[in-house]
Amino acid sequence: MIRLEHVTKTYPKASRPSLDDVSVSIEKGDFVFFIGPSGSGKSSIVKLMLHEIKPSKGKVFVNNKEISSLRSWKIPSFRRSIGCVFQDFRLLPNKTAYENVAFALEVIGKSKAVARRVVPEVLELVGLGGKEHRYPHELSGGEQQRVAVARAFVNRPLILLADEPTGNLDPDTSIEIMRLLDRINRTGTTVVMVTHDSNIVNQMRRRVIEIEGGRIVRDQARGVYG
Amino acid sequence: MRAKYVLAEVLVGLWRNVTMTVAMIITMIVSLSMLGASLLMYLQVNEMKGHYYEQVEVSIYLDKSITEDQRAAIKSQLDGDSKVKSVIYETQEMAYENFKNQFRDAPDLVSAIGPTELPESFRVALKDPQQFEQIRGAYADLEGVDTVVDQQKLLQKIFDILGSVQNLSLVVAGAMGIAALLLVANTIQVAAYSKRREVAVMKLVGASNWFIQAPFVLEAVFAALLGSILAWVMLVVGKVVLIDQKLAALTDLLLPVSWGNVNLMLPVLAGIGSLVAAVTGWITLRFYIRV
Question: Ranges for the FtsX extracellular domain (chain B) (predicted)?
Answer without folding.
Answer: 56-148
